Amino acid sequence: MTIQQSFPPPTDDAPAAEMPARVTPMMEQYLEIKAANPGLLLFYRMGDFYELFFEDAEIASKTLGIVLTKRGKHQGMDIPMCGVPVERSEDYLHRLIEAGHRVAVCEQTEDPAAARARGNKSVVRRDVVRLVTPGTLTEDTLLDARANNYLLAIARARASTGGDRIGLAWIDISTSEFIVTECATGELAATLSRINPNEAIVTDALYGDADLGPLLRELPAVTPLTRDVFDSATAERRLCDYFAVATMDGLSAMSRLEATAAAAAVTYIDRTQVGKRPPLSPPSREASGTTMAIDPATRANLELTRTLAGERRGSLLDAIDCTVTPAGSRLLAQRLAAPLTDSAGIARRLDAIAIFVADSAVRDDIRTTLRAAPDMSRALARLSVGRGGPRDLAGLRDGIFAADAALEQLARLDDPPAEIAAVMDALRRPSRDLAREFERALSEELPLIKRDGGFVREGYEAALDETRNLRDASRLVVAAMQARYADATSVKGLKIRHNNVLGYFVEVTAQHGDKLMAPPLNATFIHRQTLAGQVRFTTAELGEIEAKIADAGDRALGLELEIFERLCALAIVASEDLRAAAHAFAILDVATALAKLAVDDNYVRPEVDTSLGFAIEAGRHPVVEAALKRDGQPFIANACDLSPVPPPYPPPLAGEGRVGAGQIWLITGPNMAGKSTFLRQNALIALLAQIGSFVPASRARIGIVDRLFSRVGAADDLARGRSTFMVEMVETAVILNQASERSLVILDEIGRGTATFDGLSIAWAAIEHLHENNRCRTLFATHYHELTALSAKLPRLFNATVRVKEWQGDVVFLHEVLPGSADRSYGIQVAKLAGLPPPVIARAKSVLAKLEAQDRGQTARALADDLPLFAVPSRAAAEPAPPSEAEQLIEALKALHPDEMSPREALEALYALKAKLPKQ
Ligand code: ADP
Ligand code: MG
Predict the structure, then answer these.
(1) Which of 120, 131, 234, 835 is deepest in the core (most CB within 10 A)?
(2) Which of 624, 747, 818 should be mutated for ligand 1, with most atoms under 8 A from CB?
(3) Which of 88-92, 251-255, 483-487 shows the lowest mean pLDDT across its residues?
(4) 860: nearest Cα among 786, 780, 795, 785
C-alpha cells in the first residue's frame, strides 16, 4: 500500500522502551507542519488517505464518528490516529467546519518514488496547500446555495477625540463580491447583523476589548490575528499586490480604515488559499446612511431571515422568496438585509418589478430560462482557484446560452426600465465564442471531477483522438489475446482482467491453476497470485501491451488535462464579463420573482418619498396571511396612518409648532386579538417597500424610514444570560437614545417584564419621551389600559384597539383595528378558551369584579392631568455643558493606545493633540 512507501512503522526494529528519544523523520516532518499551523486540524496526506494524529485524531474521531486507531509511538507513547479517504474528504471537511473547526490540508508534493530515490530514510515532501475555514469555502458541497458566505475583516481606528471608528471589509470568495464600509462603534452590532458573516477576523486587541469583544465573540467563527495583518501602513501595498496594480486609486475609493480592513481580508485569503488567488471584484464602498439601519434585536423580532426558533421556514424571507436560482435567492437575502434609503434607487427596482407584473408571458418565459441557468459565479470562483471540474465549464457555457435566450425574451418588453436595460447590457457582455468553444470541447456526459479524464468531446483535438484510438485499439488486442489464450490452454473460462495492484493479468479458476503452472504452459504463464477461488498469471506479451495501454492512457489523460487548463484560462480571462452576466441573472430572478409574488398574493406598488408620511390601506402580514391561507382562514386587512397631521390643524394642534412629526398609535386589546401581528405587518410593509418590493396592502404611502426598531416585552435572552426585564430595558434604552424623527418604532408590550406599577410607569415615561423627544412614527401595543389616558395630553398620540365581540360569555376575535381603546382585557375569556378548569374561571371572575370596583383607570386619568407634560426634559436641555479644552486633551490622551499604533499613527496622533492646544 502507498502508506508503507512513506511511513515505515517506527517500532518495527526497536523495542518500545528504547524509543523515547527517537523521532522518526516522518513524525519530525509532521510536527514541523503542525507547529506552523496552530489552531487548525492537520489533514496529513498519506496515499489515498488524509491522516490525523494526536489530539487532532481524537477531535476528528469524535466529531466524525470514525475509528480511532494508533500508529507507532512518539516519545514512548502510542500515537492516536484516524484517517479519512481522500475521495470522500469533502464530506468530512464539511462536518468538521460545521462543528466549528478549521483544517489545514497537507498534500504530498512529490512522487514517493522520488523520495525513495533520495535514500531509504527519506520522507515524501509535503506542503500545506490550503487552509479550510468557514469564511473561505468554494465547494458547492460545503456551501449553502441560497446564502452568501462572507469572510469579514474588522479594523478599529482609535480616535484621539473619542468616538472610535470601525472599518469593515467583507468578501465572498465563492462569488467574488468584495465590499467595504466604515461605521461608529455604536453601529457595529447592527452592521454585523446585516452582513451576517460566516467567519470574522480581528486583531488580538479588538478580540480582547472589554466593550466590543463580547459582541465579536457572538459571531459564528472569529479568528484573532496578529497586528501585522491589520497594519494600516502596509495596507495599500498589500491590496495593490493582490490586485496586481500600481495603485488602488483607479479601482476603488476607500478610507484609510476601510483599506486596512480590506487588506486584512485579502491577506487572510492569501494565507488560506496558499498562493492561489481567487479573483475578487474591486472593493465597492458602501456609503454610510444609504441603507436602513436595523439592529440585531429588530431583525430577530421581525423574523426577517430566520424565525425566533432559528428556522428559515416561517421567516419573511421564506414567505417572499419565489426566486428560481441560488444566486437570485442570495441577492434577495442581501436586499432584505439592507433596505435602501434613497427613493430613486427604490423606484428603479420597483420599475423593474412593475414591468413583469404587467407582462406575465415574458415573466414566465424568463423564469423558465433562469431555472435552467447554472450558478455561474460560483462555478467561476471554483475554476479560478483550481478546484473546478468539467461541469463548471459546462455551467459557464450553458449560462452564456441562457443569456441569449433571456435577451430574446426581454426584447419583447416594450420599454424596458433602467434596471432591466442594465441587465440586458450585462447579458450581452460575455463572449459567445467562448460558449461555442466550450460547446465544441465538452462531451455530452461530464464526469464530476477532471482527474480521470473523459470529458473532452471526440473530434475536438486530433492528437487526443489519436492517443485514445491507440489506447482503445490495444484494449481490443487484449480481448483477442484472451480468446487466443483460452484456446491455447483449453480453459474456456480464462479471463484477462485489470486492477490497480497487478495491472493486467490472466485469471483462471483454482481447478485450472495447476495446469498453467505446469509445463509446458508455465513457460508462458508466470504465476502472480493465488486467491481462494482463483489463480492469477501474467505473460511477457501482456506486460508489453499493458505498458502500451498505460502509456496511451496516460498521454490521453495528459492531453485532456491540458485542454481543461486551456479552457479554464479562457474562462478566467473572461471572468469580469461572466460575473456581470451572472449578477444580471440574479437581478432578473429577483425582479421576476417579486413580480410573481405581487401578482399571486395581491401586492401593490408602494409610493415611497422623502416625507415623514406613513399611510397603509388594507395592510396584511405576509407570513401570518400565508399561514392562515394554508388553513383556509382569511386574514383581516387593516389600515394604519402615522403620517403627520396635515393642515389645517385641528384646534388642539394648531399653533403648537409640533405638528410636523409622525403620530404614535397606542393599541390596546385582549391577548390573541392581533396586536402583535398588526405592529409587525406595518414594519414589514415599510421594509418591503424600501427593498424595492411591492407590498401586501391595497395602497401604501411611505416616507423613507432611516432606522427601524422593534421590541417585544418579556422576550427571554437566556443565551446571553441576561434577565428578561434587563433585556427589555437595554433594548428600550437603545430606542429612546437613537430613534430620530425619520425612524419607525414598534414597541410590543414594553414594561411587561416587571411588577405592574413599575412596568406601567416605565411605559408611560417612554411614550412621553418618544412623543416629545424622538418624535418618530411609533406603534405601541400595551396591556396597560391606563396608558390610553395619555391621548388627552399628547396631541399626536392616538388610541386604537383591536375589536372583539362577546358572544354567550365567550370572546370572538374580529382582528379589526379601529380607533378607540379596549374597555377590558378579556383575559378570563381567553383563559377559558385555553381550557382552564371551570372552577378556576369562576373564581377569577369574582376576584376581578372586586378589583374593578377599585377602578385603577380613575387613578391613571388623574395622573395624566396632574403630571405636567413638559416636565419631560427636551433633548437640548438634557445635554451636559461642553467639556473644557483641558478636559478635551485629557480625554484624547486617555483614548490613545500606544501598543496598538504604528509609529506613523503615533506621529499623527501627536500632531492631532498639538492642534488641540488653545491658540495664544
Ligand atoms: P396579540 O398580540 O394581540 O396577542 P397576535 O398578533 O399574536 O395577538 O395574534 C394572535 C393570532 O390571531 C395570530 O396568530 C393569528 O392567527 C390571528 N390573527 C392576528 N391578526 C389577524 C388578522 N388581521 N386576521 C386574521 N387573523 C389574525
Ligand atoms: Mg402580542
Answers:
(1) 131
(2) 624
(3) 251-255
(4) 786
Residue 120 has pLDDT above 80, yes or no: no
Distance, CA 636 to ligand 1 centroid (Å)? 9
Cβ atoms of residues 772 and 874 within 8 Å: yes
DSSP 442: B
Ligand 1 centroid to residue 816 C-alpha, Å: 10
Closest ligand 1 atom number to CA of residue 634? 25
Minimum-distance ligand to the CA of 713? 2
User: Which residues in 35-71 are b (16+ Cβ under 10 Å) and which e?
Assistant: eeeeebbbbbbbbebbbbbbebbebbbebbeeeeeeb
Which residue's CA is the closest to the ligand 1 atom numbered 13? 674
Please name which of 668, 667, 689, 676 lies closest in space to residue 616, comparing C-alpha atoms: 689
**Please, which residues bridge with residue 105 across strands?**
43, 130
Fill in the amino acid letter for 283.
Answer: P
Question: Which residues make beta-bridge pairs with 813?
Answer: 804
Ligand nearest to the CA of 678: 1
Nearest Cα residue to atom 19 of ligand 1: 674
What separation in angstroms does the CA of 797 have from each of 772, 790, 816?
A: 11, 8, 19
pTM: 0.78
Q: Give the amino acid at 857.
A: G
Instruction: Point out the ligand 1 atom lying closest to the alpha carbon of residue 671.
Output: 4
The pLDDT mean for the chain works out to: 85
Q: Where are the alpha helices (DSSP H) in 574-668?
A: 575-601, 622-630
d(CA 780, CA 254): 41
Residue 17 has pLDDT above 60, yes or no: no
Question: For residue 719, how far is its CA from the centre of ligand 2 (angstroms)?
Answer: 22
Helix ranges (H only) for 411-539 are 418-428, 432-441, 462-489, 510-517
Which residues crowd ion ligand 2, with CB under 5 Å?
Answer: 676
Residue 146: the pLDDT is 86
Q: Please report, as a single letter, which amino acid is at residue 767.
A: I
Predicted pLDDT at 883: 64
Cα 556 to chain centroid distance, Å, stands at 41
52 CA from centroid of ligand 1 (Å): 55
Distance (angstroms) between ligand 1 centre and the Cα of 663 equals 23
- Ligand 1: which of 640, 672, 681 to mutate, most ligand atoms within 8 Å of CB? 672
Going by C-beta distance under 8 Å and a sequence separation of 6 or more, which residues neighbour residue 209? none
Atom 20, ligand 1: which residue's CA is nearest?
674
Nearest ligand to the C-alpha atom of residue 621: 1
**Ligand 1, atom 25: closest residue by C-alpha:** 635
Q: Which residues line ligand 1 (CB under 6 A)?
A: 624, 628, 635-636, 669, 671-677, 815
Task: Give pLDDT, residue 234.
Answer: 94
Give the ligand whose atoms come closest to the C-alpha of residue 669.
1
DSSP string over 833-884: HTT--HHHHHHHHHHHHHHHHH-HHHHHHHHHHHS-GGGSPPHHHHSPPPPP
Identify whether the C-beta of residue 167 lies closer than 8 Å to the C-beta of residue 260: yes
Atom nearest to 638 CA in ligand 1? 23
* Residues ≥6 apart with Cβ < 8 Å to 777: 612, 614, 642, 662, 663, 664, 705, 743, 744, 745
For residue 820, CA distances in Å to 354, 646, 814, 817 come to 38, 21, 15, 9
Distance of alpha carbon 300 from alpha carbon 282, whole angstroms: 32
Of all ligands present, the nearest one to the C-alpha of 749 is 2
What's the gap in Å between 823 CA and the centre of ligand 1? 19
Q: In sequence order, which residues have a C-beta less than 8 Å from that of residue 223 and are 6 or more positions away?
A: 39, 102, 133, 199, 200, 201, 202, 268
750 band by pLDDT with thresholds 50, 70 and 90: confident
784: nearest Cα among 843, 713, 733 = 713
What pLDDT shows up at residue 920?
Answer: 52
